[in-house]
What does this fold into?
Amino acid sequence: MAYKNDKEYIENGFSLKKMLNLTFNFTVKSVLLIGVIIIAVIMGKTCFYIVSPSEEAVIKRFGKVIDVTAPGPHFKLPNPIETVNKAKVTEIHQMEIGYRSQSGIEKVVENESLMLTGDENIISIDLVVQYQIKDIVEYLFILQDVEMTIQLAAEATIREVAGKANIDDILTTGKEQVQEDTKQLLQEILDNYRAGVRIVAVELQDIEPPAPVMGAFQDVASAREDKNKFINEAQAYENQKIPMARAQAATVLLEAESYKATVLGRAEGEAERFMQVYESYRKAPDVTRKRMYLEAVTSIIANSEVIVVDDSVKNLNLFSGMERLIPAAGAGK
It folds into this structure.
């Protein structure tokens, strides 16, 4: 660019310098403003956090736990001064042992499901372990892999419990006891490990013998069902007959007691009457003897037919009236 004189050159030089100064000042302010905005965004993002209703959060300052916060919005110092770790403490977590479910299809994991019972039989047991976080600090920071610890502890626990039970009990009436024993023992192990979880339930799913011996176990099950059927029929027969026998025995006892009371009463009455007669006889023997004679004759005559005849009647048939006894005798024969 050509200048007319030195004065114009100097004036233009000063104008250019002024423009450069203004441009530099604007650039510095913009950079500072952008830096402040970035720092504010970063601090806002790392200082403000929200804990959902199903969660708790652990705050660490320089790696040391300083607080556990409840659900809601909270503030903290920016990273890396303070960090936050969250976990769902109200949800029931579920773990499958012996099988895995994928898209509604269950796949057996034999190295987890096959185990030995107390009577030295092999059995396949699938179970579900349900647990809940009870101490978020222990859950997050004591063990390196809590889920793997729970899985391995559950496998060891069910093997120990099954190893003390008979296969018939596990397959039939002992299922609930196996579940309860497994739950208690698993909780003790995890408490010793400080896993920070509470076992909610242990539920046995499929319990069956291995495939190669399935037929033999089915035969045993059928025989057991037949046995139970016969036992139930025998018990029903027993329940029917025993009450009847007891009722008959009670009837016989009542009849015997009644007969006993009647005989004793009659005997006592006759004995008392005899004593009365004896007292009368002892006081007045002749009178009593005559009275007894008259009573005996009266009782005989009362049941007999008496025919009175005059002394002047001759040729009297002494067997008169005996003809009525002949038909009765013939009928008796």
About this structure: Confidence is low (pLDDT under 50) at residues 2-7. The first helix runs from residue 6 to 47. The radius of gyration is 57 Å. The CA atoms of residues 306 and 321 lie 10 Å apart.
